[in-house]
Amino acid sequence: MILELRDINKSYAEGDGNPDRVIIKNLNLKIDFNESISIVGSSGCGKTTLLNLIGTLDNPNSGEILINGNDVTKMSDDELSLIRAKYIGFIFQSHHLLPQISVIENVKIPCIANNDINKASINDKAEELLIKVGLKDQFNKLPSQLSGGEKQRVAIIRSLINEPNLILADEPTGSLDKSRGDEIIDLLQDLCINDKTSLVVVTHDHGIASRMQRKFTFQNLDFIES
Amino acid sequence: MSILRLAFKGFIYNWRLSISLLIGTFIASSILTGSLLVGDSVKKTLSARANERIGLIKSALICGDRFVTTDLVKTLNQKIDGYTLSSSLRFPGTLSTPDKTKRSNTIKINGVDQNFWTLFGSNDLGSNYLAINRTLANQKKLQIGDRIIVKFEIPGQVSKDAPLSGESDKIGSISGNITHIVDPSQGGSFNLFAEQERPLNIFLPLTELQYKSDKLKRCNLILSNEVEGFEESINKNWSLGDIELRFRPTHKGFKELVSERVFISDKIESSIKSKNPNSESVISYLINDIKKDSLTVPYSVGTGIGNSAAKILGLTKPKANEVILNSWLKQTELDGGINAEKNDLINITFFAVKDSREFQIIGDGLDENGNPTNDTVSFKVSNFVNEDNGSLSMKWVPDFPGLDTAKNLASWESGMPLDTTKIRDSDELYWDKYRSAPKAFFNLEQAQELWGNRFGACTSILIASESFNTDEFISSLREEINLSDLGMSFNAIQKNAQSSVNDSLDFGSLFASLSGFIIISAFLLCYVFASFSVESRTVELGTYGAIGFTRRQIGKILKIEFLFSLILGSLLGAFGGSIYTKLALLGFSSIWSGATTGIEFVYGSDPSSFAIGVFGIIIFSYIVISLSIRNITRKTPRELLSADSVSLGSSIDLKVKKSKYIYMFICFFQGVLLMILGKSLEGIKLALTFYGSGFMFLLGFIFLFAIRLKKRRENHNLDLMSTVQISTRNAGRRVNRSLAVISTVALGVFLVVAVNAFRLGDDTTESNQSGTGGFEFFSESTLPIYENINDLGIRDQFGIEEYSLSQLKFFPFRRLVNSEEASCQNLNNATNPRILGTDPIPLAARNSFRFSSTIDIDDSLNIDSPWMLLNKKFDNKTIPIIGDQASVMWALKKKIGDSIEVIDGNGNLRNLQIVALLENSTLQGNLIISENNFLEMYPNTGGYQTFLIDSNIEDKQKLSNDLTKAFELRGFDIIDSNVRLANYSTVQNTYISIFSVLGGLGVLLGTVGVGAIIARSVLERRNELSIMRAIGFNKKNIHTYVLYEHLYLVFIGIFIGLISSLVSVTPSAFSSSSPPFNLLIIITISITVGSCVFCYIATSLSIKGNLIQGIKSQ
Fold first, then answer.
1. Which of A102, A177, B554, B782 gets the most CB atoms within 10 Å of its CB?
2. Does the distance separating the beta carbons of B543 and A92 come in below 8 Å?
3. Residue range B346-382, pLDDT digits in tens
4. Considering chain B, what percentage of its residues have pLDDT values greater than 70?
């Protein structure tokens, strides 16, 4: 099992003496390798918060998050960075490519954070993946020279370069039109789901959600699998 | 891909920030490097000056008022290989042209030998020349062929202050056409002492000056190109002639040693006695009257004798209070006697020399004011010596100046005020028959007590000639006497020159501190730009975190990226520093020349200055940017990814932390505490305490406004119905950013205003408590004035008898000749500070000058005026001194209570303690001791060379002209005290001007920072402003809204800076030298107007464009 969430609770302080705002309550979730899940819900229901918790970008108020059997809630900041570098790949709604470096450099950038990546083969691998997503002639372009769909494809490749066990995609098609969005989902399904990797997609789009193997919905603090 | 490459890509991509940081560090590095290079340039200039003034000279024997023989130099040149020794005569003098259109009172006349030119690596000028140096030529516009007249005092055999030293006005004169003009590189600027201005030198062959000054085969300066063994060689080779002693024929069985200086110094006397126990002193002196009842014999020589001398005369040594008279006195009054008989009681009177060749008659039964006293000197006649006694024919008297050449007694120019009308024919008859043969012999010890003085207590020494060997005698004497014991000084010229350069005022540090505010402002700019950069890149940084970069790695990427700018900026700053230095040096030669009178600077650079300037700024700016990214790299990737730059910097926590209140309280408390403490202090301590107090108030106010800004945000009940209210509340959105603006402006205003408060005004008050001491004039003479020029009779001699004592009064000071001015007008470190000696009582009685501080005065001393501390006796023979605060603090780097060690005229190391400091006085550059201590330390220094002049004459110009003319031959320079004071004030004021310019640039940089903050705020809040436009605000409203918000901060900064600086200048506001309030008001208005204009421009530029577009894009 790649991921297990046990009795997760998360709330935010409102300040000025107001009661805390509860976002996630007693949430439990297990994801196996080679599994894809989607999480849907209305705005502000806690989808992104959950994704951040899974991606170790945030800590729950209580509960355990096990990635590859390790409880990440007890880990130090540096250990969490290592977990992210080794096991997790992020795809954001807005690609978040680094504007100052080229496409291929953006793809290779996780290798700086992850020493386990084979540096010798990283270039070949990056090129191979970029060719695979149709960006053969775009290696040395800057992100600003790409279209929205192309940028998102680069972001997907970047999330895959370190061969993570868990791909977390937050509204990966949110900034794209439907046809481009579908392309991206196809790509995610093609590239991300295999023996070693699972995919978690947060989306508003029920169509995209339905394309995942399992679908969860946030509703009034309930986390329901449908 | 590596972090380095990633950072480099960031450096290139974020080029605007990179350039901003680069400019910030470039400015800081330029300023710091430039400041240090200014220091290097000053050092290089002083070093070059030192080299040109001493050439290859490494050591020198400075003979003071003594003269050694040139044979000594010849002997040493022959004995020691590799040495180049030069003998010179160097006198002060005056120069004029025949038509009197050109004149200088501060000339140095140098009679030099061939080796002198060798010591400067230049060619000998020949055997007949009259050369002047380039400085003199330029200053007086003299050319080769011009005729000049040079005058100087012909040095006497003995100090003019010594009794029987002869007439005081023997002036030598040299006239001729200028044959050469000697450049500094050729030795033209020869000077043994580190003075800021090049000397005005005249050169002529040594032999010629020896002839003109009546000092054949003599010199008063030996120069050497070696230091090792110099003193030892001289001390092993001097002859009796070098210490101005010689044997003269005397009675059989004895050798008689006499001095060309009339009196044999105590040191020589005691040394001879210790090596020759059988030697015996003799002292002869002029007795004004020998009286028996109503009978009197005028002007006779009296001699104190011991057993040996008595034996020569066939007598026994007189007992105390007994006298052996010449049988001449047995005669009747008509024949020149007093009818003396054995056991008669006789009285004698004689002159005692007071400090200024003012003679007091001892034994006449009157005090100084002519009132009767018990002052009589009586002896019982114990025996007679026959006037024809062969032994009387030997010379019992020394070679008193003028004695040998006097045709008769009345024409003897003894230097004493002899009343020649008293001299009778019978007295002249005695003179014709026996010349100066003594008429009375006294007990030696008693005579020495009566007539001994600071120049010595014997006039000859008798040594038994049996088994006497002259060479052995001299050798044994050399073991006892070092020439430095006799007032000559061995001077390690090169070492002193180096130390006067190395320990000179550290211009590098001074300039760095004067420029400190620019550097701080530049760093603040770096901080602001770096903060803006990281705040605008939160998502990028969050992405790094999400990918798996640790916070340390993220920080590293940013730091390396910024380091490219810092390194590049700092390296470029090295070049900028050179330009800054050249501009500063240009300033010193033009608008800031008041700080460095008389120096043309050369550019100098030391690699260490570049290293410190470049690496120092890299390190500091690295710390600054590390601080600026510290907050952002502490945030989690989630916070970074979810944050926008607007929310990131603004404080979510609206509560004011208690610690802020505590800090504010501590700052204000310390400010008040320092003010209370300062009330009991004086001078610089008072000023510094209030300066500190002002600074604490500044910090306190910053905390107060930090709290106020937060409170303003916290208060939701504000009725925000005006643009101003909204603006001022907005200022609390980013408290740290607002505080950066407030702090920069406040600090700038505080520093510029507070420092300018120390600007010295023209202290033209005639109050005795002012910097002039209430004296109208300050004057210095090149040659000493020995006479008491407060005496109306003496004034008559000088042609200024028209001025009565109530109209014109001189307050004379003795001056150490071979010394250096220790003031801000001499950039060199004064290794031989100039010492003045004066009677403190008249100054105390006038309550002259204002004191900035004194040592703790014990009530038991009953001292009314700090001047009287000069008469304080220390247990350990420490000499109390008073100096000017600025001179002591800056030129000597000392403070009240500190000690200064000097070598006195007897070669002894003396400890001087600073007991009081004068506040901004005309006496700057000098250390003042009591006249008694001065004479004890420098017994051979005669006359007065510095004068404070009190007058109530309305026509000051006429008085000045009259005095200059009266003392023309002494090189009398007179200056209005206010002008002299203003000259010194100019130096301090110029430094303040430099600070003001640099501080003003700092404030300007600060306002650039404000401008950047405005631009940034507008950029961050473009949507907000768009919405305001959408809901009906016009562009003018928006402009006002943004402008008020930042003007509010600027005004708070100015207010805080002004209030704090006013606290710091409070003491001077209540002192007699109030700060220049008009100037302070102008500075404040300038800063305020400048800031407003800058804010206006920055606001206008920032909101340029179509703000509505922002809402459309929403």
1. B554
2. yes
3. 999 998 876 555 677 888 887 777 777 877 889 999 9
4. 90
Report the distance separating Cα B1062 and Cα B749, nearest Å.
11
Residue (of A183, A184, A210) closest to A93 by Cα position: A184
Q: Give the C-alpha separation, B165 to A32, whole Å.
A: 120
CA distance A192 to A153: 12
Searching chain A, which residue's CA lies closest to the CA of residue B541? A98
pLDDT tens string B847-899: 899 888 888 877 666 678 899 999 888 877 899 999 998 888 878 888 888 99
B13: nearest CB among A55, A99, A162: A99
d(CA B1046, CA B481): 79
Q: Reply yes or no on whether the pLDDT at A42 is more than 60.
A: yes
Please name the residue of chain B whose CA is at the shortest distance from the CA of residue A50.
B638
Q: In chain B, count H helices and then E strands.
A: 34, 32
- Which of B3, B543, B636 is closest, CB to CB, to A112? B3
CATH of residue A109:
3.40.50.300
Tell if the CB–CB gap between A78 and B14 is shorter than 8 Å.
no
Say how far apart CA B590 and CA B30 lie, in whole Å: 22
pLDDT for A157 beyond 80: yes
The pTM assigned to this predicted structure is 0.77
> A99 contacts in B (CB within 8 Å)?
13, 540
For an interface test with B, the pick among A14, A96, A118 (most B C-beta atoms closer than 10 Å) comes out as A96
Contact A57 B637 (CB under 8 A): yes
Q: CA of B548, closest CA in chain A: separation in Å?
A: 4
- pLDDT category of residue A161 using cuts at 50, 70 and 90: confident
DSSP string of B243-305, one letter each residue: GTEEEE--STTEEEEEETTSSBPHHHHHHHHHH-TT-EEEEEEEEEEEEETTEEEEEEEEEEE
Instruction: Enumerate the residues of chain A whose CB falls inside 8 A of the CB of residue B549.
Output: 81, 85, 112-113
Say if the Cβ atoms of A105 and B9 lie within 8 Å: yes
Task: Show Cβ contacts of residue B597 under 8 Å, excluding neighbours closer than 6 positions.
Answer: B196, B197, B825, B983, B987
In which domain, by residue range, is A61 found? 3-225
What backbone phi and psi angles, to 5 degrees, belong to B43?
-65, -45
Tell me if B13 and A100 make a contact (CB, 8 A cut-off).
yes
Q: At what angle do helices B551-589 and B15-54 cross, to 10 degrees?
A: 40
Query: What pLDDT score was predicted for residue B761?
Result: 61
CA distance B922 to B848: 11
Alpha-carbon distance B717 to B730, whole Å?
15
Give the nearest chain B residue to A53 (CA atoms).
B638
CA nearest to A99 within chain B:
B13
Closest CA to B1056 of B706, B611, B629, B690: B706
> Contact, B686 vs B718, CB < 8 A?
no
**pLDDT for position B643:** 62
Chain B residues within 8 Å of chain A (Cβ atoms): 1-3, 6, 9-10, 12-14, 539-540, 542-553, 636-638, 641, 652-654
| Contact residues on chain A for B3, CB-CB shorter than 8 A | 112
What are the extents of the domains in chain B? 1-50+506-640, 59-226, 244-489, 777-984
Which of A112, A141, A154, A158 should we substitute to test contact with B (largest number of B Cβ atoms within 10 Å)?
Answer: A112
Neighbours of B924 (CB within 10 A): 27
Angle, alpha carbons B142-B147-B152 (nearest 5°): 95
- For residue B533, what are the contacts with CB-CB under 8 A and spacing of at least 6? B14, B17
Q: Do B545 and A100 touch (CB under 8 A)?
A: no
Region for residue B835 given its phi and psi (left: phi exceeds 0; alpha: psi -120 to 50; beta: otherwise): beta
Q: What is the mean pLDDT of residues B983-989?
A: 79
pLDDT at position B829 is 79
